[in-house]
Amino acid sequence: MMYETTVVPLLLGFLEGLTEFIPVSSTGHLLIAGHFLGFENSGRTFEVVIQLGAILAVVHLYLGKIVRTVGGLGHDPQARRFAASVLIAFLPAVFAGLLLHDFIKHILFESQAVIATALIVGGVVLLLIDKLPIRPRHLDAERFSLPMALGVGIAQCLALIPGVSRSGATIVGALLMGADRRAAAEFSFFLSIPTMVAAVGYDIWKSRSEIDLTAVHEIAIGFVAAFVTAIIVVRWLLSYLGSHGFALFGWWRIIVGVAVWIALLAG
């Protein structure tokens, strides 16, 4: 009982914080881990709510910049432009998510084969992106053009498929449009705040009849674990991408995806 109510939620919360902002798909990892650990919860309440812990980590780390941007909307053109770029990048996933929500949650989220395949394909993409002769032209996440932000937002729609990775799709999209790695990652972090808040809020609303909040102890453990781990990972990722590529994440995805396929084929 202790394992099911404390250790498993702690492991899953740690996994959420570890994988939410690196391009390996936190959703895919959570669903796979929950499946093989036998962790069941009504309406996916646990997986949905602990994502808020990861979101809070980004808000905590970038609180000063967020406050300056919001405070400058009335008088600072650069603040308004940055806010507009995040909003424009956010909108494509809103429309796609509203249109495909039920199909994604009840069909794709239940398919371990879809998740494993998406992990492998995404891993190959990350290995290839390191080989492309991309010359960065955009070095500041706060100065992305509006068309560039829209392109990143369209790329984010791919992450509606579990296993693709929201951060992976947005970072790769920004890189292909000329952003350097750090700027691409930072824009992905900022975009995650409205995207994940909206996704979690809408998912809770749609699944309100299925939600089970009786396991508050489990949710609290997972939430705190995700928050603390995400703070460490975001700080590390910005430093790591400054001098390294995406091979680590690409091979990680491929290994996990292949392992899941082997497990599924073995029954």
UniProtKB/TrEMBL annotation:
Enzyme Commission code: 3.6.1.27
Catalytic activity: di-trans,octa-cis-undecaprenyl diphosphate + H2O = di-trans,octa-cis-undecaprenyl phosphate + phosphate + H(+)
InterPro entries: UppP
Primary site of residence: membrane
One Pfam match: BacA
Mode of membrane association: Multi-pass membrane protein
Superkingdom classification of source: Bacteria
The UniProt record lists the keyword DNA damage: no
Compartments, record wording: Cell membrane
GO molecular function, one term: undecaprenyl-diphosphatase activity
Top-level class of the enzyme under EC nomenclature: hydrolase
Spans through the membrane: 45-63, 83-101, 113-132, 144-164, 184-205, 217-238, 244-266
UniProtKB keywords: Antibiotic resistance, Cell membrane, Cell shape, Cell wall biogenesis/degradation, Hydrolase, Membrane, Peptidoglycan synthesis, Transmembrane, Transmembrane helix
Family affiliation: Belongs to the UppP family.
Function: Catalyzes the dephosphorylation of undecaprenyl diphosphate (UPP). Confers resistance to bacitracin.
HAMAP family tied to this protein: Undec_diphosphatase
Misc: Bacitracin is thought to be involved in the inhibition of peptidoglycan synthesis by sequestering undecaprenyl diphosphate, thereby reducing the pool of lipid carrier available.
Protein's name according to its UniProt entry: Undecaprenyl-diphosphatase
Gene: uppP
